[in-house]
Specification:
The structure holds two protein chains of two kinds.
Chain A lengths: L3 E4 L2 E4 L5 E7 L5 E8 L3 E8 L6 E2 L7 E3 L5 E6 L8 E8 L8 E2 L3 E5 L1
Chain B lengths: L3 E4 L2 E5 L4 E7 L6 E7 L5 E7 L3 E5 L2 E6 L4 E6 L8 E8 L9 E2 L3 E6 L1
Parallel strand pairs in B: 2-11
Antiparallel strand pairs in B: 1-3, 3-8, 4-5, 4-9, 6-7, 7-8, 9-10, 9-11
The chains are: A mainly beta, B mainly beta.
Chain lengths: ~110, ~110
């Protein structure tokens, strides 16, 4: 099973501050994803990547940037954090085939004050 | 845009009794369906994947897909208290593309001893 590690597990940030959430996967999967999970909305896709150097917008990209510097690492960047970005963020990876299964990290709980 | 709805929102069953969860989707061309489980404060664990009409069994979990009626069900055989969790249906493929999972909001399952 794919190993996906997120850091930090918990983060408290101030409004207007910059926040970087990190994700590392060790199974050489091509695709990586960032989701956020909110009560009443389920999981929603923010950004995803097909490989190193690639980033694509998901369904709710506004206010977020993503960076994929290598096959293993995928970061989510909040340049100017807002309280509405308080959420639990999940990173996932997948092989990049049409039948891919996504493997998720344990999540990062972000609170923006 | 794909819409995925799950019912019921919450379900309580006795240990050992069959639990049945329902998921409906809107895009009939979808061809990737997965059920995930999420224990409180944890990441998502894939339970079963199904790609064609019919049934797919993985341990005590059986997915049943009927694309004509836009339904995919999850049946849990002889659930244990440790199966108490949030169960999420995820759909991809068709017009949305294989790698853009759309999640339902989930069903909270409580298995009482």
């Amino acid at each position: 099973e794919a190993a996906v590690t997120q850091s930090p597990r918990n983060k408290v940030a101030v409004t207007g501050g910059k926040v970087t959430l990190s994700c590392n996967q060790t199974n050489n999967h091509n695709n990586m994803y960032w989701y956020r999970q909110d009560t009443g909305h389920g999981l929603r896709l923010i950004h995803y990547s097909y490989g190193a150097g690639s980033t694509e917008k998901g369904d709710i990209p506004d206010g977020y940037k993503a960076s994929r510097p290598s096959q293993e690492n995928f970061s989510l960047i909040l340049e100017l954090a807002t309280p509405s970005q308080t959420s639990v963020y999940f990173c996932a990876s997948g092989k990049g085939t049409s039948a891919e299964t996504l493997y998720f990290g344990s999540g990062t709980r972000l609170t923006v004050l | 845009q794909q819409k995925v709805q799950q019912s019921p929102e919450s379900l309580t069953v006795s240990e050992g009794a069959m639990a049945s969860l329902n998921c409906t989707f809107s895009d009939r061309s979808s061809d990737n369906f997965r059920w995930y489980r999420q224990h409180s404060g944890k990441g998502l664990e894939v339970l079963v994947s199904i790609f064609s009409d019919g049934e797919k069994e993985e341990g005590s979990f059986t997915a049943h897909l009927n694309r004509a009626s836009l339904h995919v069900f999850l049946h849990i055989r002889e659930p244990q208290p440790s199966d108490s969790a949030l169960y999420l249906c995820a759909v991809s493929g068709g017009d949305s593309g294989y790698n853009k999972l759309t999640f339902g909001k989930g069903t909270v399952l409580l298995v009482s001893p």
